Amino acid sequence: MTLQFSLQSDAPETTDTPCAIVGVYENGTLSSAAARIDSASGGAIKRRIEAGDVSGKVGNTQVLFDLSGVTAKRVLAVGLGAEKSFDAARFKRACTEAARAVTKLTVKQAASWLSELNVPGRDSAWRVRTAALATDHVAYRYGATVKPAALSLEAIAFAGDSTAQAGLDQAAGIAEGVRHARELGNLPPNICTPKYLGEQAKAFAEAHEGVEAEVLEPEQMAELGMHSLLAVGRGSANPPRLVVLKWNGGKDGDKPYVLVGKGVTFDSGGISLKPGPGMEEMKFDMCGAAGMLGTFTAAVKMKLAVNLVCVVPSVENMPDGDSYRPSDVVTTMSGQTVEVLNTDAEGRLILCDALTYAQRFEPKALVDAATLTGACVIALGKHASAIMSKHDDLAEELLAAGEETLDRAWRMPLWDEYQSQLESGFADFANIGGKPAGAITAACFLSRFAEGQRWAHIDIAGTAWDDGRKGLATGRPVSLLSQWLIEQSAK
Ligand code: BES
Ligand code: MN
Ligand code: ZN
Predict the structure, then answer these.
(1) CA angle, corner 214, sides to 210 and 220, nearest 5?
(2) Exposed/middle/buried for 266, CB within 10 Å: 0-12, 13-18, 19+?
(3) Which domains are delineated in the chain?
(4) Helices (H), 341-489
(5) How far apart are CA 304 and CA 474, in angstroms?
């Protein structure tokens, strides 16, 4: 069951809820909702602050029970840090910590006044949307192959008037897209194969009016000349697919936005085999695909007035007697030849044919997302995705959408100077550019298949999943791209 969101405009001290959520700044400064509960209860919150049980430190949460004069059964006090420096990032953090605390309780319902807090530069729709998405993120449970962790929360109401309704509506659509992306990302690669991704796309199209799906099989890809994509998939018993989804929410004849996502359902490295430890993380190597399918889902759920195409090249990269090998020369769909110097640089070899294929839709803008390089993780870590584009306006749009949603990205250069690292003596160019600037040379490779297109590349290698044995797919960059599409639809 999915978490239900609603708006409410009741007084915090008289609302009948199992749990009222209010914010507390540092140094005993109460938010207005906390102040109302405090005075209705004869100073109960201030007494707890003085006793040291409640702290306004960021991320601190404390549950207070049975406050006399207050209708709510429990009050969850959430630390907000210093009021002076309170900002959008801290607001999201507070919402996340509040959701963690409330989902640890056994309550089915809660009401939050965090959405009333003053956040510089952000309006009530933004606050409600951000609070709802943060809560949904925490409430997500993976349950496809294991008994999911318990979750009792079913519904949460956020303080806000009708000006916040648009934010709540967007949150519902984006949350569904994020959940879809996370679920696909988390599935093991013996379930989530290229064929599975194709079947899911077809099922989605069946279930949603106005959505069309087409899934190309290896024979059709061979006819189109996608020999680079096919070469990567050749070592696997799970044959490749090219998944195409279309949503015509815009005007007839309007050019579509085209999203391309790397769908490597497992990346062993192939003949250039990866080391054993950590290889299991490479089930997440289809998170670009998941992110684009999730963004597509969000756009359809929001019924965005845009024409949208999602293209997902999907393969499994495995070592085998029939695998492609280092020093192979492959001919891409574009006609350009590539010398394969490392079979572990496979993402670009499937994306290149997908980017060539995407040009038939005459994109208004072409954006790809991929868990493309370990170098990107070294450069930016887990917090920012990398954006590379020769189109300053498109890069700026995407960066701004990342700031707006706090699904943030950082731009790296895509200067022609880097292109020479791809030189080859045996083909038009090679598939790797050496150690320096690995994220950029990967983008340089892709740029050769996006000539003349308004194109941007997003490397999500560091942001697509959380580290560790229990690390889950994050659903990034669904929020960023959904926001970008919302803005495009308003143009
Ligand atoms: N899927 C990996 C990139 C990756 C690695 C993402 C670690 C997230 C975490 C990609 O296919 C890959 O193996 N890239 C190589 C490229 C190299 C051979 C030029 C890499 O980054 O090491
Ligand atoms: Mn690889
Ligand atoms: Zn890969």
Answers:
(1) 160
(2) buried
(3) 4-160 (3.40.220.10), 174-489 (3.40.630.10)
(4) 347-358, 374-380, 392-405, 438-447, 478-489
(5) 23
Which residue in 87, 84, 182, 73 sits closest to 133, CA to CA? 182
CA of 193 to the centre of ligand 3 (A): 14
Q: What mean pLDDT comes out for the span 436-457?
A: 98
Q: Residue 90 and residue 86: Cα distance in Å, rounded? A: 6
Which strand (E) or helix (H) includes residue 218? helix 218-224
Over range 78-105, report the average pLDDT. Answer: 98
Distance CA 231, CA 331 (A): 10
**Token reading at 375:** 């170098």
Q: Answer yes or no: 108 catalytic.
A: no
Of 289, 328, 54, residue with least CA distance to 189: 289
User: Buried (b) or exposed (e) across 284-295, using 16+ Cβ within 10 A?
Assistant: bbbbbbbbbbbb
Distance separating alpha carbons of residues 415 and 156, to the nearest angstrom: 48
The phi and psi torsions of 103 (rounded to 5 degrees) equal -80, -10
Q: Which amino acid is at 156?
A: I
**pLDDT one-digit tens code per residue, 10-25:** 999 999 999 999 999 9
Residue 1 confidence (pLDDT): 72
Token pair, residue 340, equals: 């394969």
Q: Is 348 a catalytic residue?
A: yes
State in Å: Cα 372 to ligand 1 middle.
Answer: 6
Ligand lying closest to the C-alpha of residue 270: 2
Q: What angle do CA 271, 327, 270 make, to 5 degrees?
A: 15
Residue 423 near residue 306, CB atoms below 8 Å: no
Q: Is 406 left (phi over 0), alpha (psi -120 to 50) or beta?
A: left
Report the percentage of the chain scoring pLDDT > 70.
Answer: 100
On the question of pLDDT at 248 being above 90, the answer is yes
Tokens of 70: 């207050």
If we measure between CA atoms, which residue out of 97, 90, 259 comes closest to residue 177?
Answer: 259
Q: For residue 432, give the ligand 1 atom closest to its CA.
A: 19
Global pTM reads 0.98
